[in-house]
Amino acid sequence: MSANVVDPGAGGGSGRGHAGGARRPTDTDTDTDTDTDTDTDTDTDTDTDTEMDTEIGIDPETDAEPDDGTGRGRHGDRKDTADGGSTRTGTDVAAQKHAKASTDPTRLLRRSARRKERVPTAGGSTLHLLVLSSTSEDTTVVDLATRTVMRVRVPWPEGHEPDISTFDVVEVTLADDPERDDLAQPEATTVADLPRHVGTLRGRHLRKLLRRLVASPDGPLLGFPGPSAPYWEFRGFRPSVALIEPTRRPQLIRRQADGSTWVRFGWDRDDVWLPVEDRNAARALDAARRERLSGKSLATALGFEPQYLLVTVSPPRDGHCYKVCAAVLPRG
What we know:
Blueprint: H1 27-31, H2 35-43, H3 45-55, E1 79-80, E2 86-87, H4 90-103, H5 105-112, E3 126-134, E4 139-143, E5 148-153, E6 168-173, E7 188-190, E8 196-200, H6 203-213, E9 228-230, E10 241-244, E11 248-254, E12 261-267, E13 270-275, H7 279-288, E14 292-294, H8 295-302, E15 308-313, E16 320-329
Parallel strand pairs: 5-7
Antiparallel strand pairs: 1-2, 3-4, 3-6, 4-5, 6-8, 9-16, 10-15, 11-12, 11-14, 12-13, 15-16
């Protein structure tokens, strides 16, 4: 058994543990969805669709948006009747149903299970994305049409914290110049404007998606050993993000020297320490007034049982890119 343990209180910089391997989802992963998964998704559409209708503001009983008091929904015109009343026209209802179907996360997932697609890269393309983590500098997402992990640069206003949460589904438009040229972060792209919230993915659809994205412990985590690598060593051929399932339950640790938050976990046969950028994880330590959390105490402080860790490569800092834990995530 190999182990590489570093006490975060013993020195600065990034974690000194290195982890086993990972892989980035490919087009082959998209094609491996079984017919059973697709059929199962169809069996329980009603419950999930009703839940999603509520999230995006559509009445699941009438399939209509709330009336604003003017005789029309947010997107519908009205048609006068003989008795002076008004009704929604068939064209309006059809357009509304089409808009709902095009932004329903569960329908987007089922659609991707039946056909092979590539992530659009041209400026002006519209994407529907599942949020895994978000900061003012970086947002890690899953493209629902292709089930591909991506990183997007959002032009948040200065001093404005992101107003999107984990597992939100957002719509974005790629910038005219997506800037897909960062060799350390080959999945990264730039969007033209702030994301538009269209729903939230929950339940078994989310759990199945996350299971498919989990990296296998085959080789160094994120393609290189150790906690960091010089920026000039990156060539754009290895992933900068991985969703991992620890082989030993994670511990959250507050480093007394600088107040930073770290996570310690098992990955294959290694003991790994990484700095944490997840605001919710840091708040959990603050709320519990503890310097270390694990097991049931950690689950209570977080509000869920931690199942996955989202590990990413940071932007260059003093010429080096570091492995960091961007999010601690539940099963779904």
